[in-house]
Amino acid sequence: MQQRSRWLLLLATSSVSFMSTIDASIVNIAIPHISRDLKVPMNEAEWVVSVYLVLICTLLIFFGKLSDQIGRIPVFQVGTLIFLVGSLGCGLSQSLPLLLAARAVQALGSAMVMATNFGIITQIFSVDQHGRALGINSAFVQVGNLAGPGLGGLIISLVNWHWIFFVNLPIGLIAFWFGNRIFPKSPLKLAHVHVDWWGYSTFAPMMITFFVAIFWGQAVGFHQTGVLSLFIVAGILLAAFIGIEHHVSDPLIDLKIFANRGFSLGIISAMLVYMVGYFNNVLMPFYLQETLTLSAASAGLILMTVPLLNIISAPTGGIIADHIGAERVSFYALFLFIIPGLIFIFVQPNWSIVWLIVALAGFGIANGAFQNNPMIMGNAGPQFQGIAGAIAALGRNLGMTIGLSLSTSLLYVGISLKAGYRLTSYPQQHPQWFVFGMHFSYLIAFCLILIALGLLGWLLNSRRVISNSLNQQRQSKDI
């Protein structure tokens, strides 16, 4: 394949990745409008977000495994079309049941796209270009994660919420057309399909149970018996899934992939970074619009600082990763979170807005420079590229969902501590209580970054020790 064609394909796959990722977060800011327009309670309107995330996480591993068997490109292309059909259905929906059904279709297509895009990129690019290519794709994916509230706010300030979904159509159709013309043509390998149904029959209910516990706990408190029981059931299903995967001949997930320390720590550290990224998605719109009383359009423009800087730093980090390694670049990038993290912890409403823009810009640079995708895919063998991409996408979505729940829960814990009694809404008469809760949440987020920093530092140090030991052994043999 010609070099020019590779980069066009990267643009096409990354554009679809951007759409499928941004649709997990862009709807958040539209929930009040959807609730009002469709005449449903706010908590029911929030199912529009939950259904999408739950179904994606439930389907990702299935399509990752399937794509390793029948081919990643066909799964990606079909997934793109399904996602566009779902987007059209969402935009045309005039009732909550129709909107939820269309979101389910969207999630099906999105899972197919997310499960295959990383594997396609590592397939069409040479090893020495993986960092650059995955870094560019990472820019699209991370911008999709972070740009949702900002872009959603801008769209809603100009047109109605239906256009949040309609804007996907021209981008997706162009990306599909490019892919159909340029992707390498390969026959479907349907004869080799084998699905570990026993494994999937425990994995799917495990994910659904875990998410129900997360969302229910967020609403009623995680100390409730019912919520704790669901977490226990999810843990039992996880144990059953691991037991099954160890004993079947062709498992849904070959657990040997986790024996690679770089892969496992890459997934964990990426989840932590995505969790922290979602703190901004939850807390900043409240702070900008409620505490600082800015308009949705102004708040959206300020929040776009993160993805705009991300676009620059992610490809740059990928290029550097091709030379010094993705783990090392990611380790250094985590230090860049420290300054914006400290600003978020201490910022006050009477500070100049410039401080907040500087913090968001620094966060965008750090988030883009963190090379989670090259780090994860580079530590997975060639035979694991499909499932590794699916696991990476699952880790990202889990990080986003846990970050959503954790940031919200910590915010209201902090507000309640300041108020002296339990609160689960914005304290309109006491905005300083919200500021305290926000600082409390960002302090925990800062600790999560320090944990990721420690994990990658330990990984790099252990590799250095192993490398020194091997060098000493070689020198002893030479003597």
TrEMBL record:
Listed InterPro entries: MFS, MFS_dom, MFS_trans_sf
Protein localization: Cell membrane
Source organism superkingdom: Bacteria
PROSITE patterns registered for this protein in UniProt: MFS
Transmembrane domains' residue ranges: 48-66, 78-101, 107-127, 139-157, 163-183, 195-216, 222-244, 265-288, 294-317, 329-347, 353-370, 391-413, 433-460
Domain (Major facilitator superfamily (MFS) profile) ranges: 9-464
Keyword annotations of the record: Cell membrane, Membrane, Transmembrane, Transmembrane helix, Transport
Membrane topology (UniProt): Multi-pass membrane protein
Location (main, coarse): membrane
Name of the protein described by the UniProt record: MFS transporter
